[in-house]
Amino acid sequence: MSSLPRIVITGVGLTAPNGNSLAEFRQALLTGKSGVKPYEIRYFGKTLAGQCNFEATRYQSRKDIRRGTRAGSIGIYCANEALKDAGIEIKNIDRSRVGVFVGTTEHGNVETETEIHNVKQYNYDLSFWTHHHNPRTVANNPAGEVTLALSTTGPAYCIGAACAAGNLGLIHSAQMLMLGEVDLALGGGVSESIHTFGIFAGFKAQTALATHDDPTKASRPFDAARNGIVISEGGCLYTLERLDDALRRKAKIYGEIAGWCVNSDASDYVLPNSERQAECMRGALKKAGMKPSDIHIVNTHATSTMQGDELEAAAVNEVFSDSNTCVNNTKSFIGHSMGAAGALELAGNLPSFEDKIVHPTINVENLDPKCAMRGLVINAPKKVERVDAIMNMSFGMLGINSALIVKRYGN
């Protein structure tokens, strides 16, 4: 990678179930504030979910919100917040050189379910089917809605990578910048998962949907009593630039993209493969030219399923057994935001470069011995001497794995 341009993060825009800015999100992670609440959705009924409460009208008219999608609104909010955070006014740059690369998972299901529900009220008379359905459900919708809102004319599309999609949005952004295809990238992931009843029904049918009397304790990775996933919505988009461009405009730099790896299990539709996960971590380390001991924080993907958490813990132990790396998990606070997960979870750890605090995994009341990992930070933040590199891990159905390394700029 040394012969290619260096890529840095210069802006962060997000909405999470427990915060609508990086500062709010980080504070919630350091104080143990969960964003999981009771939730009810048609047909399925009462359940739990991570729900966002951002100000969509900050960047959209009410008409545009009605015409578009929830995922699109999340993307527009995050993109605008990321640009503002980076100190970039879109009117002052070449909009044809701006790329928008959005990771997503379930997009489209929400709109189709809604229309079927609506026409059911009219005895399935399809003349009542909305003419907005097609643009709402195409796979590139969230990225496309961002370009419409910002009037950018560069490449823009969504990356379907299951729950690894948020990481892939960042990785692809870096690649496009390195290739010179764009000069500024908005990359990350978004999710509108909680608005489709099918995802709740599907996970329940797999016996993989979390339950708990206290919603804030339902998402509990690595705990012996964990019983499934808490479904969440959210989004996080970053501004990424070539280092020379960022330095030229004296931008603040959150971190530098150091390396990544994406591979496939090729072994099962839903059950993770610990060996392939370990290979993915090693691949990212190799690309970054780093050793396990160079990584100071590993953010795990763990979703609170019995087998998934065990297998990931085994992979982490295999790669990082001889290092003093801290290990944490963000889903314990917000649940699983699917296509947004990787991007949001990285954001929660980025401030550690400056404050040298590792946010914990919460809700671990009784650590499952099969999930014990050296360096696992549970229930309270940990102050450390230095944080120079973070590995962010995201895995998804059909066996896609991703590991992304971001290092402190100047390290």
Shape: globular
Largest sheet: 10 strands, mixed
The top level CATH class name of the largest domain: Alpha Beta
Put simply, the count of helices is 14
- Please provide the count of β strands: 14
What is the ordering of alpha helices and beta strands? Answer: EHEEHHEHHHEHEHEHEHEHEHHHEEEE
- CATH superfamily placement of the largest domain: Thiolase/Chalcone synthase
How is the largest sheet built, in terms of strand order?
A: 5-4-6-7-1-8-14-13-9-10
Strand content range: 15-25%
Helix content: 25-40%
CATH architecture of the largest domain: 3-Layer(aba) Sandwich
Alpha carbon gap, first and last residue: 16 Å
Mean pLDDT comes to: 97
Any idea what the radius of gyration is?
20 Å
Instruction: Name the poorly predicted regions.
Output: none
The computed structural class is alpha/beta
Question: Could you please describe the fold and organization of this structure?
Answer:
The chain has 411 residues and is α/β, with parallel strands linked by helices. It has 2 domains: 7-248, 3-Layer(aba) Sandwich (Peroxisomal Thiolase, Chain A, domain 1); 258-407, Peroxisomal Thiolase, Chain A, domain 1 (3-Layer(aba) Sandwich). 33% of the residues lie in helices and 21% in strands. It has 14 helices and 14 strands. The strands form 3 sheets. It has a 10-stranded mixed β-sheet with strand order 5-4-6-7-1-8-14-13-9-10, with helices on both faces. A two-stranded antiparallel sheet has the order 2-3. Strands 11-12 form a two-stranded antiparallel ribbon. Helix 3 crosses helix 6 (141-150) and helix 10 crosses helix 11.
